[in-house]
Specification:
The chain has 458 residues and is an alpha/beta fold. The chain folds into 3 domains: 6-124, Alpha-helical ferredoxin (Fumarate Reductase Iron-sulfur Protein, Chain B, domain 2, Orthogonal Bundle), CATH 1.10.1060.10; 131-233 and 390-456, FAD/NAD(P)-binding domain, CATH 3.50.50.60; 237-387, FAD/NAD(P)-binding domain (3-Layer(bba) Sandwich). 35% of the residues lie in helices and 17% in strands. The chain has helices at 10-13, 26-35, 43-47, 54-62, 66-74, 80-86, 93-96, 108-121, 146-158, 174-177, 186-198, 215-220, 251-260, 286-297, 317-326, 394-398, 428-431, 436-456, and strands at residues 6-7, 21-23, 138-142, 161-165, 202-204, 225-228, 234-235, 248-250, 278-282, 301-305, 329-331, 334-341, 347-360, 366-370, 376-379, 382-385, 389-390, 423-425. The chain has a 5-stranded parallel β-sheet with strand order 5-4-3-6-18. Helix 6 (80-86) runs antiparallel to helix 8 (108-121) and helix 14 packs parallel to helix 15 (317-326). Bound molecules: flavin-adenine dinucleotide (FAD) and iron/sulfur cluster (SF4). Residues 86-88, 142-148, 165-168, 173-174, 178-179, 207-210, 229-231, 233, 255, 286-287, 290, 316, 392, 394-395, 427-429, 433-437, 439 line the site of flavin-adenine dinucleotide.
Length: 458
């Protein structure tokens, strides 16, 4: 039987921003680790984008060697406490686990978190991992999300002198400003940033590369290579009438105000957010669920408006279940067509049309088709639009010669090299909005390519 992690009860957790999942106890972790049959040809490893030696780290947990288990994880994954919490394991390692044939894959994510959380009490001697490399050169990493953090850490471990530039005042990218505290406590992210600093990486917040400094200026300052990991943080909108009304937020602004600016801790933090009693969140991905669940915790009546059905929601299954338990309403097969406002310019409702599922579209999912004459109004004093993000345009736009695709992503070859000599890129800025682990995988592989490149300069 697959062991499940304990969670705060739904009634309790909708009143606070504390972590929902409480993680495995020692006993549960041991029981779950014992279920792993230590496959000779472990399919789970192939399902992991950074190829963590999963049976090996699980075996160490089984032997009671939690610290060694963490060290094993860290051979391939610099951010296990984060991945253990937010990776879509059900689509990756757990999907491939041999025991999934019987519908009971090993709970690899929970075991990963269990091993990683060990460090909260007993840190490894992490700085020792940084090699004093006599050939180390100056390298700039731009953007401190999972791609940038991973690349910076791996370059520092090789022995290079790495500066990590971040435009916001706090590093971590989406891990800090996007994913809410109740899914990923910020002390975990801060701990991982400290680890990266302990490897010798210099973190420079409040630095918008492309403005000050530019990529050219970095090279003039003696940097030999630049890794661009600026993510996909540009909000997309619906493009329907009334979208400029007050209290219609992009998901990015809504989450940044709540998570990074700590609006949920007003008045302790003097950065409140103006939210009415009824909140409509538009979208069906992780981002939409995060917004809806934040609004619930602020005591609001929340409705999630999605144009397809639950089965087609791109959000993680676990998060959909959690959200349902927390009790907000869903309006499926619903497409907003217009926002209406009051005479002061504030939103008061969303006019929607009912949809039905038609033939599959390019994504393979059945296309939602409007039902003529089915329009109806959802009343709401606040709307959050969470229908996708595009690549951050500033750095590509301000860096002459840096080629981009029609979607605004930076073009890279199989070695993460861009059209500019010495400039590499990876993560959401090259793929469009993706996952934490795929951004980390890119950062890891790019670090090796960057190391090869700077050595070739000698
Ligand atoms: P980001 O994390 O976006 O980091 C980019 C960083 O670059 C940002 O800090 C930004 O401020 C900085 N930056 C941008 N331009 C500049 C510049 N010019 N100069 C300096 N710095 C700059 N994935 C999962 O796997 N599981 C989840 O549960 C999950 N939930 C999500 C929830 C939300 C709300 C969001 C928005 C995304 C979620 N994702 C999730 C997706 C995942 O977080 C991203 O795929 C991942 O963070 C991308 O990493 P990145 O390093 O490429 O970019
Ligand atoms: Fe263990 Fe499943 Fe991996 Fe086999 S596939 S080694 S059972 S986690």
């Amino acid at each position: 039987m697959r062991n499940k992690v304990k969670q705060q009860s739904p009634q309790e957790r909708v009143k606070n921003f504390n972590e929902v999942s409480l993680g495995f106890s020692d006993e549960q972790a041991l029981l779950e680790a014992k279920r792993c049959i230590q496959c000779k040809n472990p399919l789970c490893v192939k399902g992991c984008p950074v190829n963590v030696d999963i049976p090996a780290f699980i075996k160490l947990i089984k032997e009671g060697k939690r610290k060694e288990s963490l060290a094993k994880l860290k051979e391939k994954n610099n951010l296990p406490a984060i991945c253990g919490r937010v990776c879509p394991q059900e689509d990756q390692c757990e999907k491939e686990c041999i025991l999934n044939k019987k519908g009971m894959p090993i709970n690899i994510g929970a075991l990963e978190r269990y091993a990683a959380d060990h460090e909260v009490d007993e840190p490894l001697n992490r700085a020792a991992e940084a090699k004093q490399h006599p050939e180390g050169v100056k390298i700039a990493v731009v953007g401190s999300g999972p791609a940038g953090l991973t690349c910076a850490a791996d370059l520092a471990k090789i022995g290079h002198s790495v500066t990590l530039y971040e435009s916001l005042h706090i590093p971590g990218g989406v891990l800090s400003y996007g994913i809410p505290e109740f899914r990923l406590p910020k002390k975990i992210v801060a701990g991982e940033v400290e680890y990266i600093k302990s490897l010798g990486v210099k973190v420079q917040p409040d630095s918008l590369v492309g403005r000050a400094p530019t990529v050219d200026e970095l090279f003039h300052q003696g940097v030999k290579a630049v890794f661009v990991a600026t993510g996909a943080g540009l909000p997309q909108f619906l493009g329907i009438p009334g979208e400029n009304l007050n209290c219609i937020y992009s998901a990015n602004e809504f989450l940044t105000r709540i998570n990074l600016m700590k609006a949920y801790r007003f008045p302790e933090y003097n950065t409140p957010i103006n939210i009415g009693k009824r909140v409509a969140v538009i979208g069906g991905g992780n981002v939409a669920l995060d917004c809806a669940r934040c609004a619930m915790r602020l005591g609001k009546d929340v409705i999630l408006v999605y144009r397809r059905t639950e089965a087609q929601m791109p959000a993680r299954k676990e998060e959909i279940e959690n959200a349902k338990e927390e009790g907000f309403k869903f309006s499926m097969l619903t497409q907003p067509v217009k926002f209406s406002g009051d005479d002061k310019g504030f939103v008061k409702g969303v006019e929607c049309i009912q949809m039905k599922l038609g033939e599959p579209d390019a994504s393979g999912r059945r296309r939602p088709v409007p039902i003529e004459g089915s329009n109806f109004i959802i009343e709401a004093e606040t709307v959050v639009v969470a229908v996708g993000q595009s690549p951050n345009p500033l750095l590509p736009a301000s860096t002459r010669g840096l080629e981009t695709t029609a979607h605004g992503t930076i073009k890279v070859d199989e070695n993460f090299a861009t059209s500019l000599k010495g400039v590499f890129a990876g993560g959401d800025i090259t793929t469009g909005a993706d996952t934490v682990i795929s951004a980390m995988g890119a950062g890891k592989k790019a670090a090796l390519e960057i190391d090869k490149y700077v050595r070739s300069l000698k």
